[in-house]
Amino acid sequence: MKTIDINKVVVPQPVLDLVPAAVARRLKLLPLSIENDLLLVAASGEDALDSVEQLENITGMAVDAVMADNPDMLAKALKRYYPDGLHSSRGENATLLFDRIVNRAMQLRASDIHISPHKSGGSVKMRIDGQMRKDLDLGEGILTELTSVIKIAADLDIAEKRTPLDGNINMNLLGDQVSLRVATVPTVHGEHITLRLLTQDDDQALAALNTIGMSDEHYAMLIQALADPNGIILLSGPTGSGKTTTLYAALRHLRGDGGRHLVSIEDPVEKPVSGVTQIKVDSDSGRVTFNKALRSVLRHDPDVIMIGEIRDGETGDIAIKSALTGHLVLSTLHTNSAAGVLTRLVNLGIAPFLVASTLRLAIAQRLVRTPCSHCISFRCPTEAECVEFGWDSADSGLKVPDVHGCSFCGNTGYSGRLGLYEMIPVDREIKKMIISGADEHDFSDYAYTRRGLASLKADGAGKILQGRTTVEEVRAAASSIF
Ligand SMILES: [Zn+2]
After folding, report:
1. In sequence order, what are the residues at sequence separation of 6 or more whose Cβ sits closer than 8 angstroms to the Cβ of residue 13?
2. Does residue 65 carry a pLDDT above 50?
3. Helix, strand, coil proportions of the chain in percent (round to 5)?
4. pLDDT tops 50 at residue 76
5. What spacing in Å lies between the alpha carbon of 415 and ligand 1's midpoint?
6. Whose CA, among 19, 49, 116, 474, lies 20 to 30 Å from 440?
7. Helix crossing, 140-153 with 94-107: angle to 10°?
8. What is the Å distance from ligand 1's center to 58 Cα?
């Protein structure tokens, strides 16, 4: 019999509904998926075969089983999916419903839960791998109760419905500590609630630089730039492209080196990182602006300064001066491409020779989804795809993944994400080009044609052939660049 890691499974509600809670608990079987009238369940222990037979009799369906490799995990999963006293969503108590929603968000690895009111009733949506998915429709009555339950748990005033409120919830779900950041915002139909799932062990949640999807070539470029005692490393990409993850991973790498004083100026501080002095900018009140914070930071003798974002010439100017006075500066810029980074600082009004002498590495990145390993399939690329991604169409060994969707990935075909990157190290030629006022096109031409560096699209093309993402994902991610 095959075995399965139960923690990697997401069971859709319709599949759970096929097996009554009492039966699932008694037989210690967790339904996983249904395909062509064959119900697949996870089982454990010596009675597994006996239990499967009983389930076939009870449900009248053909049942196939895989062994859970850890019986305790199966027991825990059964409790999660079939909480005591909760059999259907009809007449469900709002507190239990809230537990069930958070449970499900954890199972699905969601980053956020959105509870939105509509004209009548509302819906629960979850953001998974960056994409919003509707999960549940709510009737008017239960929506009102649920909203109150959440606001009470977050210690918010339930009578206040006209202004946005913020709070936190710490809850214990079957032994797991869960923290949620709660934000409400009034809409025409009532209060919209956003719940962000926070991980308990923030250091663990901090990705290591070699796990976020960089090719060996890109990883080596970044490590080399981080080893520099001074200079500026700039990341670009749209919102949600994983820039913050990369910056934090870089901080984690630098912290591992030891011996350097790390300071970050952020708006807001997204994750607490031990070993880094994190300063929160309060731009709303104007008390702690980016520039004020940056100036005061320099008095604290940091070696490495991370600035959340260079938004204007003034911030750019201080960043450059910090780099000139012996600091390594990491920051982000709002441009689309690595070549765009090379022109942006000059466009912000900084003297080209200062940019040329301080900038070390320009990076652009995007996030793409990775195919679900349970339902991935492979095919030969089409002639058009070979042209598009620069593959040799005569090479019959090339395979690209297709996605389908199954119960493991909530029918999306994808599970998890990885970064696509392009990096341009500032060499002597690039310095000359910056000073002589080269444009984005000139930089791209030099970097990707003459130097033969991997552009974002080329990076994606390689990752498609490795089966780590799909043609569709790379096309969508890179569309803003080419
Ligand atoms: Zn799948």
Report:
1. none
2. yes
3. 40, 30, 35
4. yes
5. 7
6. 474
7. 80
8. 28
Q: Per mean pLDDT, which range of 53-62, 221-230, 381-390 is the poorest?
A: 53-62
Ligand 1 centre to CA of 9 (Å) is: 10
- As beta bridge partners, residue 367 has 419
Name, in order, each residue with C-beta under 8 angstroms of 305's C-beta and a sequence gap of 6 or more.
263, 264, 265, 294, 297, 298, 319, 322, 327, 328, 329, 330
Cα 361 to middle of ligand 1, angstroms: 37
Kind and range of the H or E element at 32?
strand 30-35
Q: Looking at the chain, how many residues does it have?
A: 482
The CA-based diameter of the chain, rounded to the nearest angstrom, is: 80
Q: Assess contact for 41 and 51: CB atoms under 8 A.
A: no
Query: What is the structure's pLDDT at 5?
Result: 78
Which residue is it, tokens 């977050």? Answer: 154
Tokens of 262: 């790390």
Q: At 176, list the tokens.
A: 């797991």
What is the set of domains in the chain, with CATH numbers? Answer: 3-81 (3.30.300.160), 94-198 (3.30.450.90), 203-478 (3.40.50.300)
Query: Rounded CA gap, 78 and 72, in Å?
Result: 10
Spell out the residues 6+ positions from residue 380 whose beta carbon is closer than 8 angstroms to its own.
396, 398, 399, 400
User: What b/e sequence results for 350-375 when a residue is b if at least 16 CB atoms lie within 10 Å of its CB, and e otherwise?
Assistant: bebebbbbbbbbbbbbbbbbbbbebb
Mean pLDDT on 163-176: 80
Cα 291 to middle of ligand 1, angstroms: 47
What are the C-alpha distances in Å from 243 to residues 127, 139, 295, 301, 367?
A: 18, 39, 24, 26, 9
Which burial class, exposed, middle or buried, applies to 416 when counting CB atoms under 10 A from its CB (0-12, 13-18, 19+)?
middle
Q: Are 191 and 147 in contact (CB under 8 A)?
A: yes
Distance of alpha carbon 408 from alpha carbon 370, whole angstroms: 13
As a whole number of angstroms, the distance between CA 17 and CA 294 comes to: 56
| 275-329 confidence digits (pLDDT tens) | 788 887 776 666 677 777 877 787 777 899 999 889 888 889 989 989 998 999 9
- pTM, entire model: 0.67
